[in-house]
Design a protein that fits this description.
Radius of gyration: 28 Å
Shape: globular
Bound molecules: nicotinamide-adenine-dinucleotide, zinc ion
Distance between the termini: 56 Å
Organism: Nonlabens spongiae
Pfam family, one: DNA_ligase_ZBD
Number of strands: 21
CATH class of the largest domain: Alpha Beta
Number of domains: 6
CATH architecture of the largest domain: 2-Layer Sandwich
GO biological process, one term: DNA repair
Strand content: 15-25%
Helix content: 25-40%
Low-confidence stretches: none
Keywords: DNA damage, DNA repair, DNA replication, Ligase, Magnesium, Manganese, Metal-binding, NAD, Zinc
CATH superfamily of the largest domain: DNA ligase/mRNA capping enzyme
GO molecular function: DNA ligase (NAD+) activity; metal ion binding
CATH topology of the largest domain: D-amino Acid Aminotransferase, Chain A, domain 1
Largest sheet: 6 strands, antiparallel
């Protein structure tokens, strides 16, 4: 490859990873590899300035705006940070600074929080807007979601508050909350979230702010931006922001020279392990705002700030064997079984290899000495192979051809990274997974059965599909190990009670690929009954060929589904595949005979749902609609109304001319305030 081709290909590759990372909250490669490639690109570009491109990932902030939210242009640009890895890098930076500014330079050292960048706008002391970093010049407006985060003050306190200003920070998901979310997912048999950063960033982009409110997010602030700020240094800025009620972490310090900066870095490289949230480094900023102004910005980052990245601990060990795991959807994940090794205080025996491409890219083979890293991810990963230690008789890895669970030949659809086991009905993890999904809280919510019981029931041959659950009796399950009379009764009662679960959740419980809660609800309300959904279009046929008649009908059904707002082609195809499959049709028929809800109930059609179940609302102020109308909507959708604000209030629906005492109380208690429109969005 010529240098030009290399540069072009690296730019393309990095743009792709950026898109995955910032828009889809997904990391296809480790940060370590990403940074290595970026560095490689920078070096090539430095050696070949003739190929300079102002849109190269080396000079631009990596994110983008999405179409799901309103796009907002930042009044003050949001930048990324340049990286340093050693004292020498910092000294070089200081040299560049001293060429531009006179006099002594003081620094503020802050921790670098690893989450999603956010800008909060305040007007007249009240929270007005929250916007993501996006591409740096414009971002996504996520106000409603951010409002649900308790540490975001809705009203500021204290004096000297500028009339209008912005404050920058990071939305993070502390470890404790992250682990709790994953524990809950594990119970429901769902895939685990990979790391707190991606989960925090993904949470901001949820369409349902009530869902965001359930997530234990925090907002840590570190930078004021505005035209007339009452401060002359960064450090003052932190103190002021704290006094106004923002959550500004206490760990920041002033350093009068780089030696002090290094001491701060060394201290936190060790102590960061005790912090409640993740940090991936330290940010060093020139303290004086006047000096900051003199220094200015590059296209990508301020010249007055520098990130110092902690190195992630890497150890080398032997890869004993590659095995394969099959998930509930049939997706196959290769797993590296390692010679046990200590990383950051835990013994690591296994690492994820993601997919066949990953193995091929790194040319990972059994018997290799590999470098393992445990960064922000819960599952450690292999970042490189030590080729110098590769045994002479080493053989390239041949990816599994058959399912390790049921021996069916694996398939890989075009454009997909993952292999799949197509034996949906006969592959044990898929059987168990589908049943676990069926009984999970958001689906049929069957009390009295846990993941282990499902395993037991399947292994004992008592059930093979979720429809079989409805044939279970106390007598049948009692012989199972550790099954007491009481728990057997609970189980059977729970199954019986699930027959009342509304149609949209039954539809979700069926486990049709790509049909999540929201899509299930859309389909349920659109078709109103399972029969209508399953009905294949009838048409007049010239052809007597039954096969082509069937494919014609399927094509038409996909069109029909695709025409429903927000139902894309992939979903439409998947639904059509499901309802055409005789096996699935049979199962659905059985469920219907057992008495499950297969149509929208009359009261649901009158606008009654349970989307607000468990939520308590206070309505205050003047609205477009009458208050009674709003109240009825809360109740019709399963919410509770209360006349006064308390710690138990989940939302305050805020109208015009609302009384100041209620406002203050809600602000103090950190109760999310939503507008009439935002409320309508929830129902
Ligand atoms: N694995 C992948 O596919 C992939 C893809 C793209 C980016 N990345 C990773 O993302 C990083 C690049 O992301 P980036 O452009 O967001 O830059 P960055 O994370 O290196 O640093 C800039 C950001 O740091 C944050 N920050 C945290 N604490 C701060 C503080 N006290 N003061 C100021 N800012 C603070 C801000 O949000 C700021 O935007 C790299 O480490 C890269 O490895 C990975
Ligand atoms: Zn299988």
């Amino acid at each position: 490859m010529t240098p030009k081709e290399q540069i072009t290909s690296l730019r393309e590759e990095l743009r792709h990873y950026n898109h995955e990372y910032y828009v889809n909250d997904n990391s296809e490669i480790s940060d370590f590899e990403f940074d290595k490639k970026l560095e490689q690109l920078k070096q090539l570009e430095a050696a070949h300035p003739e190929y300079f491109d102002p849109s190269s990932p080396s000079v631009r902030v990596g994110g983008e705006v999405t179409k799901n939210f309103e796009t907002v242009v930042h009044k003050y640009r949001m930048y990324s940070l340049d990286n340093s890895y050693s004292l020498q890098d910092l000294k070089d930076w200081e040299k560049r600074i001293k060429k531009i500014v006179d006099g002594p330079v003081e620094y503020v050292c802050e921790l670098k929080y690893d989450g999603a960048s956010i800008s909060l706008r305040y007007e007249n002391g009240a929270f007005a807007k929250a916007v993501t970093r996006g591409d740096g010049s414009q971002g996504d407006e996520v106000t409603t979601n951010v409002r649900t985060i308790n540490s975001v003050p809705l009203k500021l306190k204290g004096d000297d508050i500028p009339k209008e200003f912005e404050i920058r920070g990071e939305i993070v998901l502390p470890w404790e909350g992250f682990n709790a979310m994953n524990a809950a997912r594990e119970k429901e048999g769902l895939d685990l979230y990979r790391n707190p950063r991606n989960t925090a960033s993904g949470s901001l982009k949820l369409q349902d702010s009530a869902e965001v409110a359930k997530r234990p997010l925090e907002c840590l602030l570190y930078q004021l931006a505005g035209d007339d700020l009452p401060i002359v240094t960064q450090y003052e800025g932190l103190e002021r922001a704290r006094s106004w009620g923002f959550k500004v972490p206490q760990e920041s310090v002033l350093a009068k020279d780089l030696d002090e900066v290094m001491r701060y870095i060394e201290k936190w490289d060790v102590e960061r392990k005790n912090l409640p949230y993740e940090t991936d480094g330290v940010v060093i900023k020139v303290n004086s705002l006047r000096q900051q102004e003199e220094l200015g910005f590059t296209a990508k980052a301020p010249k007055w700030a520098m990130a110092y990245k902690f190195s992630t601990e890497q150890v080398s060990t032997r890869l004993e064997k590659i095995t394969y795991q099959v998930g509930r959807t049939g997706a196959v994940t290769p797993v590296a079984n390692l010679s046990p090794v200590e990383i950051s205080g835990t013994t690591v025996r296994r690492a994820s290899l993601h997919n066949a491409d990953q193995i091929e890219k790194l040319d990972i083979r059994e018997g290799d000495e590999v470098y393992v890293e445990k960064g922000g991810e819960i599952i450690p990963k292999i970042v490189a192979v030590d080729l110098s230690k590769r045994p002479d008789d080493s053989q390239p890895t041949v990816y599994a051809i058959h399912c390790p669970e049921c021996d069916t030949e694996l398939i890989r659809k075009e454009g997909e990274a993952q292999h799949f086991c197509p034996n949906e009905m006969g592959c044990p993890p898929q059987i168990k997974g589908r049943i676990q999904h069926f009984i999970s809280r958001k689906a049929m919510d069957i009390d009295g059965i846990g993941a282990e019981t499902v395993d037991q029931l399947v292994e004992a041959g008592l059930i093979a599909t979720y429809a079989d659950l409805y044939e279970l009796t106390v007598d049948k399950v009692l012989p199972l190990e550790r099954m007491a009379q009481k728990s057997a009764e609970n189980m059977v009662n729970g199954i019986e009670a699930s027959k009342k679960v509304p149609f949209e959740r039954v539809l979700f419980a069926l486990g049709i690929r790509y049909v999540g809660e929201t899509v299930a609800k859309k389909l349920a309300y659109h078709y109103k009954s399972m029969d209508a959904l399953m009905k294949m279009p009838e048409r007049e046929h010239n052809s007597t060929d039954l096969f082509s008649q069937a494919t014609d009908a399927a094509t038409e059904k996909v069109e029909e589904l695709n025409a429903i707002p927000e139902i894309g082609r992939v979903i439409a195809q998947s639904v059509c595949d499901f309802i055409q499959d005789p096996l699935h049709r049979g199962t659905v028929q059985r469920l219907k005979e057992y008495g499950l809800q297969m149509e929208i109930a009359a009261e649901q059609l009158e606008g009654k749902t349970d989307v607000l179940a468990g939520k308590s609302f206070v309505i205050s102020g003047v609205f477009e609609r009458s208050r009674n109308e709003l109240k009825k909507m809360v109740e019709d959708n399963g919410g509770k109304l209360s006349s006064s604000i308390s710690g138990k209030t989940d939302y305050l629906i805020r109208g015009k001319n609302m009384g100041p005492s209620k406002l203050e109380k809600a602000g103090k208690l950190g109760i999310p305030m939503i507008s009439e429109e935002e409320f309508l969005g929830m129902v």
